[in-house]
Write a structure and sequence with these properties.
The complex is a heterodimer.
Chain A lengths: L9 E4 L3 H10 L3 E8 L2 E7 L9 E6 L2 E6 L16 H4 L3 E8 L5 E3 L7 E6 L1 H15 L6 H9 L1 E5 L10 H4 L11 E6 L6 E6 L2 H8 L9 H16 L9 H6 L6 H8 L5 H5 L6 E7 L5 E8 L9 E2 L2 E2 L4 H20 L9 H4 L7 H22 L1
Parallel strand pairs in A: 2-8, 8-9, 9-10
Antiparallel strand pairs in A: 1-11, 2-3, 4-5, 6-7, 6-13, 10-11, 12-13, 14-15
Chain B lengths: L22 E10 L4 E8 L5 E3 L4 E6 L3 E6 L5 E3 L2 E6 L3 H7 L6 E8 L12 E7 L7 H9 L7 E7 L8 H8 L4 E7 L9 E2 L3 H4 L9 E6 L2 H13 L7 E4 L15 E2 L2 E2 H4 L2 E3 H8 L5
Parallel strand pairs in B: 9-10, 9-13, 10-11, 11-12, 13-14
Antiparallel strand pairs in B: 1-2, 1-8, 2-7, 3-6, 4-5, 4-8, 14-17, 15-16
Chain lengths: ~375, ~290
């Protein structure tokens, strides 16, 4: 890969990482970053770099996530955890309206949360946020809640160099290099030795933030150091998706018996849709208090794996598991392109890791591609 | 040629600019149509007028129970009255059924695409409706009746489960009294009082006698009924670009964001519910899509 000269804003010594977090806190941000919790990497609000999972890594397989104690000083030495930044921009549950029985007056629930700072976003996370931007802000009807949080937030991305076995962002997304969609991008280099973060900025907001920090100048060698990180991540990922037009492949496979074979393994648990950083389906729940004078409307995430999702009077449209799995995968990889002009998959691998039975969409897509190839070969043989 | 684009109308947002905020209306009239179907007329509390195109729907909210998508059944255009004919089939429609004149209903809308009555001027209009499917199509009937000179032959085919389930019987009778309007009604199961057609709606299509190339067909009912109606229309030479259908799916937001109404590439709430059939033919016969 050709080495592009970088214009780093500077470098931040690793022991100064708190100055970045403090600057965010001083500007009134809630800082959301990876932490070690419940034997996994997940996201939480932090106030100090000590909360980061320093020295911890992850081993991910279809249906498996294990923490590994590397014991080094690296702050961001892992891929991605179960949670994604989606849960902050598009919370799993939020109240929309308060309604009084008396005159049915409706009061909108305003978002009073402080602006969000996302620390440690990967290229796949940036990709996911760009995809959800299109969903929530790209049509006639902009979602005001999402737009407010999104416009107020600041994103401090970190280049990934330890992808897990379930990662395939080079195939499905735009990773592993953070190229756009961040305010500040960090590259963690020189762990245990000359430990520091190379700092790039991607917006005025990001520039204003790092101008407040005590950055040191980078050297010419840092270009190569950064590139090495990216190259290592690229090299760690095997080609995973079939080399074919996947949207067309799935559209042609609507009646394939393979859906049944996947459905025999699928538990319909909805983990994939919950862990997916781009899944956007939601439902509305109406509740009343006990004396029936006050009602509330809540928006909650919903999943196409439930019977409820496609329910109309008389029953559900997607009654069998095969049709629900087909909806999830075909929507994500095919219909999404028709709807939003881009794929719904970033290659983050969460749906593979967090599937309790280890259904691997890469393997299934290769299966569909194999079926199609076999069908073509048979046709040619017959002809 | 019929129009090729059934793009949604520019959104009319009544809820102070927020399409997710229901606006208060009051029931000004209520009529029980059949054992399980009723019509309510609503007016905005603030007195504003309501404009819709035939085939569009509103989201109706009852206090504490929830919201349902209900097509609009009045005369299309602008007026103070908002007419909905509703079948009591679930929790919210049951709650709506229990409301009386003076009670409040929250309303979001109108949403969705519409039957292209303007671009079908000069055509022979064939309506094929099944059951409650007559309600979303009544605005078309009223429009054609009020602008009779703009259209050629006018044929209404309607199928109900039993004679007692026939919707708007007086209105259908009035239309039938016009010598240049054909109204054909059939029932799945007759009782002793019924001396008309018995059987599925498709049995009446062959007898309807229209000139296929002049037809614009508007079809609304259960998917299986629409399937057979279209098959018969095709057999008579009506092509799929002359046929419009209205689809039904789970709709919660009505603005293409909640995801529940997805039908392949389509968000039925905003890309539909009315489709020119040749545009969605490839989705129509895929089971459980």
């Amino acid at each position: 890969m050709e080495l592009r000269p970088r214009s780093f804003a500077g470098q931040l010594k690793a022991d100064q990482l708190n100055s970045l977090i403090d600057a965010l806190l001083d500007q009134g941000y809630r800082v959301i970053a990876p932490v070690k919790r419940d034997a996994a990497i997940t996201l939480a609000e932090i106030r100090t770099s000590e909360s980061l999972p320093q020295g911890w890594g992850d081993e991910q397989q279809p249906g498996s996530f294990r923490l590994t104690d590397r014991g080094d000083t690296e702050y961001f030495g892992f891929a991605v955890g179960a949670g994604s930044f989606k849960q902050y921009l598009f919370p799993s549950r939020r109240k929309l309206l308060d309604i009084d029985r008396h005159d049915m007056s409706m009061t909108k629930v305003e978002d009073t949360e402080k602006p969000l700072a996302f620390l440690g976003a990967r290229a796949c996370d940036l990709d996911a946020i760009a995809i959800q931007d299109r969903v929530f802000m790209g049509s006639d009807f902009v979602d005001p809640f999402y737009a407010k949080r999104r416009n107020e937030c600041i994103i401090i991305a970190v280049n990934c160099h330890r992808p897990s076995s379930t990662c395939f962002c080079t195939d499905a997304g735009k990773g592993p290099e953070c190229r756009s969609g961040f305010d500040v991008a960090l590259t963690e280099v020189g762990v245990d030795d000359d430990h520091r973060f190379l700092v790039e900025t991607g917006s005025e907001k990001g520039t204003a933030l790092v101008n407040n920090l005590d950055l040191e100048a980078t050297t010419e060698a840092d270009d190569a150091a950064r590139q090495e990180i990216i190259d290592r991540a690229v090299a760690a990922m095997q080609p995973a998706l079939p080399d074919t037009d996947i949207p067309a492949l799935l559209k042609a496979a609507t009646e394939s018996p393979r859906w049944e074979s996947i459905a025999e393994r699928c538990l319909n648990c909805a983990n994939c849709t919950l862990s997916c950083p781009t899944c956007f389906c939601s439902g509305i729940e109406d509740v009343t208090d006990l004396d029936g004078t006050h009602a509330e409307r809540w928006q909650t995430w919903s999943s196409c794996f439930t019977m409820d999702h496609s329910y109309i009077h008389g029953g559900s449209i997607r009654r069998i598991g095969a049709s629900r799995y087909r909806q999830w995968l075909t929507h994500k990889m095919s219909f999404w392109v028709d709807q939003f002009g881009m794929s719904g998959c970033t290659g983050c691998g969460r749906c593979v890791t967090w599937c309790p039975v280890g259904i691997d969409i890469r393997e299934e897509l290769r299966g569909f591609a194999g079926d199609a190839l076999e069908a073509t070969t048979n046709e040619e043989a017959t002809a | 040629m019929l129009d090729t684009s059934l793009s949604p109308l520019p959104p009319v947002v009544h809820g102070a600019g927020d399409p997710m905020l229901p606006v208060k209306t009051r029931i000004v009239d209520r009529k029980q149509e059949t054992a399980d179907t009723f019509t309510i007329e609503l007016e905005f509390e603030n007195g504003s007028e309501f404009t819709f195109a035939p085939g569009q729907f509103n989201m109706l909210y009852t206090f504490g129970t929830g919201e349902v998508p209900i097509s609009i059944s009045g005369t299309p255009g602008t007026s103070k009255n908002i007419v909905h004919t509703i079948r009591d089939v679930g929790v919210v429609t049951s709650a709506l059924s229990g409301l009386n004149v003076g009670d409040k209903v929250g309303l979001r809308g109108p949403f969705g695409t519409y039957w292209p009555i303007e671009s079908c001027k000069g055509k022979d209009i064939v309506i094929a409706a099944g059951g409650i499917g007559l309600a979303p199509i009544r605005p078309v009937i009223r429009h054609v009746m009020e602008n009779r000179d703009d259209y050629g032959r006018f044929i209404i085919l309607y199928g109900a489960r039993t004679p007692e389930d026939i919707l708007y019987p007086e209105e259908l009778g009035q239309y039938k009294s016009n010598l240049d309007v054909e109204v054909w009604v059939t029932v799945d199961r007759a009782d002793r009082s019924w001396r008309g057609h018995v059987g599925v709606i498709t049995t009446m299509i062959t007898g309807a006698g229209f000139e296929p190339e002049k037809v614009a067909a508007f079809v609304c009912g259960p998917e299986i009924m629409m399937h057979f109606v279209i098959m018969n229309m095709n057999r008579l030479g009506v092509t799929n670009d002359q046929i419009y259908v209205s689809m039904e799916r789970n709709m919660q937001c009505a603005i293409g964001r909640c995801g529940h109404c997805q039908w392949g590439t389509e968000f039925v709430c905003k890309d539909g519910p009315v489709y020119r059939f040749d545009k969605v033919e490839h989705l129509f016969n895929i089971r459980q899509l």
